[in-house]
Specification:
By secondary structure, the chain is of the alpha+beta class. Helix content is 25%, strand content 31%. It folds into 2 domains: 4-154, Aminopeptidase (3-Layer(aba) Sandwich), CATH 3.40.630.30; 173-344, Archaeosine Trna-guanine Transglycosylase, Chain: A, domain 4. The chain is built from 11 helices and 17 strands. The longest helix is centred in the first third of the chain and has 16 residues, at 95-110.
Length: 359
C-alpha cells in the first residue's frame, strides 16, 4: 500500500468519507467532536494512498484522571492516542504498526511517563497490536471500552517491541550495520530528514517500524536483543566519502537468521518469503533472485527506534578519528556500551531519553 503519513489539519480531512463510518457507530457524537477539532485548528496523522484514507491517528497531551468501572487512574501528564483507525482494506498491511510507532515516537519526545488509548475489544487486530507494543489492559470505562496503558517506569524488556521506543538498560554491547546509500534510503527514509518529528512514510517498506536487512554474508556480529547502529555507506563519486558515509539511525535487533550458508539452504524459499515480504526494499522477483543467486544469505530483522537527522548524522571521519572505526568488515563491528552511548550522544540524541533508568 504505497502512500504516506502526514500531519494534516482536521479541516482538510473529509468528514463524510466512509472511512469514519465505524467510528460514528462506536462513538455517538463523533461528528461533533471532529468539527470541534477542526475549529480548534488541530491536526492528526493521516495516511493516504490512491484509494483514499488508509489510516488516521490523533494524539494529544492531557493531565486529568481517567475513570474506570472499578477504579481510577490518577491525574498526571500523559499522552493519549485519542483516535487510531486503519482502513479495512489495509488489514494485514503494516499501517497499524507504523501508526503506533509514530505515536510512541511522539511519546518519547514529549517525555511523559505514560501513554494510553481506549479501544473496544471487538477490534481484535488493533488490540493485538497494542499488546505487541507493550500496552496493558488496566480496566474498562463505563461505555465498555478497554483502557490500555504503557508506562515507561514499568517497561517489559523481554521483547524489543514491548519496550519500544526504548532500549533495555541492561545491554552490554551494540553492533553496526553498513548499508549502501540507495538501499538505506528506501529502508530508512526518515533518516536523511531534518532532526525533528516527521510524519511521512515514503515507501511501503516504511509503513511499519519493523525493518528487514538481507545480505550476502556468512556471519554477523548482530544478535537479538542488542542495539544496532545503521551506517549509510556513500557510493557516489562527488565530495569526500569520509564525510558522506554516516551513521543515521539506531535500532534493536529482533531476529537473525542464516538463510543459506556456503550454498546450503538452511531455510526454504517459502519460509524466506514469509519472513521478509513487505518488510524489505526488494520486490518479490528480486527476493527470488537473491535466494537463488547467493552463496551466503542472511536476514537481520530489527525494530526501528529512531534517527539522528540531517546535520546530526555521525560521519566516518569522526568515527575514525575517535577510535570507533574498527578493523575488518563493518558488519562484524561490536561496540561496548560506553562506545554506543558516545556515538548516540554525538548524534544529539539524549541517552537519558532513550535508555530509561540506566543502571
Amino acid at each position: 500500500m504505497p502512500g504516506s503519513f502526514r500531519s494534516t489539519p482536521f479541516n482538510e480531512v473529509c468528514l463524510s468519507d466512509g472511512f469514519f463510518d465505524s467510528l460514528r457507530e462506536d462513538y455517538p457524537g463523533f461528528d461533533e467532536w471532529f468539527v470541534g477539532k477542526s475549529a480548534a485548528g488541530e491536526a492528526a496523522l493521516v495516511h493516504r494512498d490512491d484509494e483514499g484514507i488508509g489510516a488516521f491517528v490523533y494524539v494529544k497531551e492531557e493531565n486529568e484522571a481517567v475513570e474506570l468501572e472499578d477504579g481510577i487512574l490518577s491525574a498526571l501528564p500523559r499522552l493519549k492516542i485519542g483516535t487510531l483507525k486503519v482502513a479495512d482494506r489495509a488489514q494485514g498491511e503494516r499501517l497499524g504498526e507504523g501508526a503506533i510507532g509514530l505515536a510512541l515516537w511522539r511519546w518519547r519526545k514529549i517525555g511523559h511517563a505514560q501513554v494510553y488509548v481506549t479501544v473496544f475489544e471487538k477490534h481484535a487486530s488493533l488490540v493485538g497490536m497494542l499488546r505487541k507494543f507493550g500496552f496493558n489492559n488496566v480496566g474498562a470505562k463505563e461505555n465498555g471500552e478497554s483502557v490500555y496503558v504503557k508506562d515507561k517506569r514499568r517497561l517489559d524488556y523481554s521483547d524489543p517491541y514491548r519496550c519500544f521506543p526504548f532500549i533495555d538498560p541492561s545491554f552490554k554491547a551494540a553492533t553496526l550495520l553498513a548499508i549502501n546509500d540507495d538501499f538505506h534510503d528506501q529502508l530508512f527514509p526518515y533518516s536523511e530528514l531534518a532532526n525533528q518529528f516527521q510524519e511521512s512514510f515514503q515507501t511501503a517498506a516504511a509503513n511499519g517500524v519493523t525493518k528487514i536487512y538481507i545480505g550476502a554474508a556468512a556471519s554477523t556480529a548482530a544478535s537479538p536483543g542488542q542495539p544496532l547502529l545503521v551506517y549509510r555507506k556513500y557510493t557516489g563519486k562527488d565530495g569526500q566519502p569520509g564525510f558522506k558515509s554516516v551513521i543515521t539511525s539506531y535500532c534493536m535487533v529482533t531476529d537473525v537468521a542464516q538463510v543459506k550458508h556456503e550454498g546450503r539452504e538452511l531455510m526454504s524459499f517459502e519460509d524466506f518469503m514469509r519472513r521478509v515480504k513487505n518488510k524489505s526494499v526488494f520486490s518479490d522477483d528480486e527476493l527470488a533472485a537473491w535466494y537463488r543467486g547467493k552463496w551466503n544469505l542472511m536476514v537481520i530483522e530489527m525494530v526501528y527506534l529512531g534517527y539522528f537527522g540531517l546535520g546530526h548524522n555521525v560521519n566516518w571521519r569522526w568515527l575514525s578519528d575517535n577510535g570507533y572505526w574498527h578493523a575488518g568488515h563493518p558488519n562484524q563491528t561490536t561496540y561496548t556500551r560506553a562506545e554506543f552511548m558516545s556515538i548516540v550522544e554525538r548524534g544529539d540524541v539524549g541517552v537519558e531519553a532513550l535508555v530509561v533508568d540506566q543502571p
